Amino acid sequence: MFRDDPFAVVGGELAKSLESAGATVRCRHDDYYVEYQGRSAKVEFRPPDEPSGERGAIHTVVTVRGALPEPRDGRPPDDEALYTLNRSAALAGAMSEHERLFAGARLTVYRGEYAWHDLQLPLLTAAVIDGIRAFGLHPEQPAPVRSSADSTWAPADLCAAAAVLSRLSFCTHDEGGLTAEFPLAEGELSALAGDSRTAMLQMVTDRPHPVLGGGLECLLQMPHQVEDRARLARLCNQLNRMEMARLDLPPHFGAWRPGEFMNNPTYVTFLPDSLHAISGIAVNVGVWAAHRARWASVALAALGVKAPAVTPLPYAAIVPDADADMDWRPDDYWDEDGYGEYTPLNEFERRMELAEASGDWSDCEVPVVPFAMRGGDFLPRLRGNEVEIARLSLDSTTWDVISIRARRVGRRIAYRVVDEYETPYVIRPKTSKRPLTLGQLIALIDGLSDGEQSRSPTALRDDQLIYGDPDQIEETADFVTVSSPYYADLEDWYTRQAMEWAETRLAEREARNAAEEE
Q1: pLDDT at 337
Q2: Is the domain of 295 the same as that of 372?
Q3: Which candidate, 111, 141, 114, places its Cα nearest to that of 129?
Q4: Are 191 and 443 spatial neighbours (Cβ–Cβ below 8 Å)?
Q5: Which member of 378, 431, 446, 454 lies 3.0 to 4.6 Å from 194 by CB, making a disulfide possible if both were Cys?
Q6: 3-class DSSP state for residue 489?
Q7: Predicted model pTM
Q8: At 255, which helix (H) or strand (E)?
Q9: Closest CA relative to residue 415, chosen from 490, 502, 333
Q10: How many CB atoms lie within 10 A of CB 438?
Q11: What's 338's DSSP letter?
Q12: For the residues of 160-175, what is the DSSP string, one character each?
């Protein structure tokens, strides 16, 4: 128990834990010097810079600094070099101090905590051993033994984490991963509802570490976008240095680095399988991520980077449909040969297919080369193994198309949304292990955003609604058609939503007219 024990007691326990892992440890005052397989680290126990914080009185702050090999050219590591190193981060972040390269981790311990033996001690031990080893081989370090076995983290671990995180955030999980979204301020919504001021936590079991092998990868993705790669690398390195402060901060076992889309700060923690036996460790990492998201948002604002502005969403009418199974999902988006169902990208081809299937050719009786038949002509090409799983067809002059696509990336499915205008769509989720359920796809579509305003079917209809007269409302209801070759109930769902939208707008108009007459 880590309550009022002097540093020597808990430091001695850490030394014994490290020695049992094969390390050599020597003590000098409140500092412990560790040697392990050719690598060296220094563990310091210090009082906090401020005695208390929001989470209570602070007992001590433990920092780990593990030496990393200096660059071969002898020059001090720059931001780009540190970014490259942190692509391999697990339980510590690569950073430089006084032109020396090291891997850093920190634990802020509060008075009255009962987590030292069961959680904090084994985690600190792993940070010293595996946190430094994760950055690659040292000349004296033997090659890691890599196993082809799957991660030992099971759906039950993710379910336990989701049960707790659901009290703090919007959270979903399946057998391969967990996704949670944390508001950066009180009262903000989920990104699935179109709010871009939420940070997203992903926990996945199918991304082994190149050195440590199987485990649980935890990614906290911030919504802040920085298009200048050099500036983003610099910001991530500044955040890593700030994480080492002796302040009221969530435990720092990981590293900041550019995210999967290379334009947002992301915090990564990798829990190797050796930590799986620690009860509740995934839950704690998730709770720490919720606190870290808010701290990082404030820190980034101080560094001149703010989260995207929130645009209030228009009324979004979702019509309960007893005939639609929200949990249904296709078995796959690809056949056994790896091919997806053929999707005509050109609007003319799509209308022709519908006409042949229904026998109704009215939508194909058009003048020569009409713009409405060219919708989709200028969509970006499909990438390798990419398929279109749904589309929004707009009844505009050029019959614009918004295409929702999926492709295999490793053992996961990655999603993106494109149109003819290179709109930078923000979507959630960005990846999944299995095809989306109907409910998840509807949430993705209703949560579409360009980073500034909603691009959901409801928002697109509202953008067209200028005069508000009854005829125009009914015409605008048909402005967006949502269809899918995989989800048979999707078009009916959005047809009903359009009807509800029209009824709502007509009721609003009548209420305004009645108020004006009074």
Answers
A1: 56
A2: no
A3: 141
A4: no
A5: 454
A6: coil
A7: 0.61
A8: strand 255-258
A9: 333
A10: 22
A11: S
A12: HHHHHHTTTSEEEEET
Apex CA 457: angle with CA 453 and CA 461, to 5°?
85
- Within a domain: 322: no
Q: Is there a single domain that holds both residue 70 and residue 180?
A: yes
DSSP 316-375: ------TT--TT---S-SB-TTSPBPP---SHHHHHHHHHHHHS--GGG---SS-GGGGT
Classify residue 41: in a domain, yes or no.
Answer: yes
Q: What is the pLDDT of residue 372?
A: 41
- Between CA 88 and CA 94 the distance in angstroms is 9
Residue 32 DSSP class:
E
Q: What is the pLDDT of residue 147?
A: 41
CB 412, CB 432: distance < 8 Å: yes
Q: Based on the domain organization, do 182 and 58 belong to the same domain? A: yes
Query: Is residue 490 situated within a structural domain?
Result: yes
Instruction: Say yes or no: 388 and 508 in one domain.
Output: yes
Structure tokens belonging to residue 36: 């392990």
Q: How many domains does the chain have?
A: 2
Residue spans of the chain under pLDDT 70: 1-9, 71-74, 137-150, 176, 185-196, 260-262, 308-323, 336-357, 359, 361-378, 466-470, 518
The pLDDT assigned to 203 comes to: 93
Domain interval for residue 81: 7-138+152-302
pLDDT at residue 282 in the model = 92
Q: Are 191 and 210 in contact (CB under 8 A)?
A: no
For residue 181, give both structure tokens.
């979204």
Boundary (domain end) residue, out of 267, 302, 337: 302
Distance between CA 471 and CA 450 in Å, rounded? Answer: 29
Tell me if 428 is assigned to some domain: yes
Which is it for strands 100-110 and 56-67: parallel, antiparallel or unpaired?
A: antiparallel
Q: Could you give the 3-state DSSP secondary structure of residue 209? A: strand
On whether the CB atoms of residues 386 and 437 are closer than 8 A, the answer is: no
Which of 238, 268, 302 is the C-terminal boundary of a domain? 302
Quick check: bond before 429 cis, omega within 30?
yes
* 31-60 burial: b if 16+ Cβ within 10 Å, else e: ebebebeebbbbbbbeebeeeeeeeeebbb
User: Do 228 and 132 have their domain in common?
Assistant: yes
How many alpha carbons fall within 13 Å on the CB side of residue 373?
13
